[in-house]
Amino acid sequence: MNDSQRPVSTESVDVGIDPLSQAKLEMDTYQVVRPDGSYDADRIPDVDDEAFLDLYRWMLLQRVFDTRATKLQRRGLLGTYPSGRGQEASIIGGGFALSPDDWIFPYGRETGALLMHGLSMRDLLLYWRGIEDASRMDGANIFGLAISIGSHIPVVTGKAWGMKLEGEDRVAFANLGDGATSTGAFHEGINFAGVLDVPAVFFCQNNQYAISRSFDGQTNAETVAQKALAYGMDGIRVDGNDVLAVYNAVSKARERALEGNPVLVEAVTYRRGAHTTSDDPTRYRSESEVEEWAEQDPLERYRSFLEETGRWEEIDEDAIEKEVEAEFSDAVDAADAFEDRGIEAIFDYLYEEKPPELERQFEEFRELLEERPDMYDHIEHRPKG
Ligand SMILES: Cc1ncc(C[n+]2csc(CCOP(=O)(O)OP(=O)(O)O)c2C)c(N)n1
Ligand SMILES: [Mg+2]
Fold first, then answer.
1. Is 271 annotated in the active site?
2. Which mutation among 203, 211, 219, 269 tests ligand 1's pocket best, with the greatest number of atoms within 8 A of CB?
3. Cβ atoms within 10 A of the Cβ of 120, count?
4. Residue by residue, what is the 3-state secondary structure of 188-209?
5. Alpha carbon of 367 to ligand 1 centroid (Å)
């Protein structure tokens, strides 16, 4: 029989195939405080009054830091800076749910959570000045920033696996953006997290953009959370502008992870500012879209909750702002006073002991400088970010 002559049916005959389709997935977005300020009393976390206030204080700190750091970059005093404006509830709610023993893997946009977990403001500023020493993350259980998007996900799985083998009672907490979920490393890393039942939480802030690429331009999946199912993991989708909801979601995910069930959490939010100080978002998105999301401001929403529950009078916004401003100014002074060890430091922190190949590269670098001393300044002032 001639194969090319075989008729292809154009008529649709029901032969009982029922594809698994995302249209059938029911994925709620978990909320505690609604945009109008009303809230679900059964979902209020069981934390003390001070913790409710601290959540607001930290979100305000994030906002003040973002504003100051952006201005500092504009004056040429930071290489670049990625603001978390609009994402404060995700950043702070996630960080607040972690224990001081957990290991945090940042990618850059989670300033408040890093400061909450022991990184100094000075070191964060030094990092964004391109000073390698700051990547040591002194005094904190924080890995170096994964500037190469998604590259940390397999490392998170590896670290969590190690922690499991050592019988440690803590989780590895991966911060990532929606863009990172479209990298190969994400899929490889998360797959093994599922296979190995590691104590890891993958916390994705879906801020709707990977620089200029909108969420639906980079994936045909309707949600990030559903991607967990393909790897046999739990997924949680949460309103990322609702700080109590994020706190609950990450607390739950952490609990599950400690029992050997890694979880992918998607916090649905919006990046209101530029991707970094090197970006101009007016070139790829409309004013009206930004304004729509401005109405969902995480601080205002949480403020309504604090007012409703009689806690707002405990917050002195002016005093908090002044305190953070002063802390920031001191951190800038401390960063200015830091004695940079120069470009050579880039060879120092990847390995405890420099392997031969890195030694060789370092030697080559030194030879280059002997021949062309002018290269030093050229590299030192290379555009960053
Ligand atoms: C592997 C890799 N490819 C490209 C880039 C350039 N880049 C920097 S940030 C970014 C987008 C990240 O988007 P997302 O993961 O959604 O995080 P967001 O910045 O929105 O918080 C890209 C493509 C990079 N840093 N690493
Ligand atoms: Mg993004």
1. yes
2. 211
3. 19
4. HHHHHHHHHCCCEEEEEEECCE
5. 34
Atom of ligand 1 lying closest to residue 271 CA: 20
The token duo for 354 is 């420099």
Asked if residues 303 and 56 have their Cβ atoms less than 8 Å apart, the reply is: yes
Report d(CA 340, CA 47) in Å as an integer.
43
Centre of ligand 2 from the C-alpha of residue 24, in Å = 26
Whether the CA torsion 205, 88, 95, 116 is positive or negative: it is positive
**238 Cα: distance to centroid of ligand 1 (angstroms):** 22
Q: Which of 2-11, 125-134, 316-325 has the lowest mean pLDDT?
A: 2-11
- Taking the CA atoms of 127, 130, 136 and 138 in sequence, report the sign of the dihedral they define: negative
pLDDT at res. 12:
78
Spatial distance between the Cα atoms of 385 and 380, rounded to a whole number of angstroms: 13
Q: Which atom of ligand 1 is nearest to the CA of 275?
A: 19
Q: Give dist(CA 235, CA 97) in Å, integer.
A: 17
Domains, the chain, with CATH or none: 26-337 (3.40.50.970), 343-380 (no CATH)
Q: Which ligand is nearest to the CA of 273?
A: 1
Catalytic residue among 34, 136, 284, 311: 284
Query: In the predicted model, what is the mean pLDDT of residues 177-186?
Result: 98
pLDDT in tens, 140-167: 999 999 999 999 999 999 999 999 999 9
Please say if 284 is a catalytic residue: yes
Whether 172 and 154 have beta carbons less than 8 Å apart is answered as no
187 included as an active-site residue: no
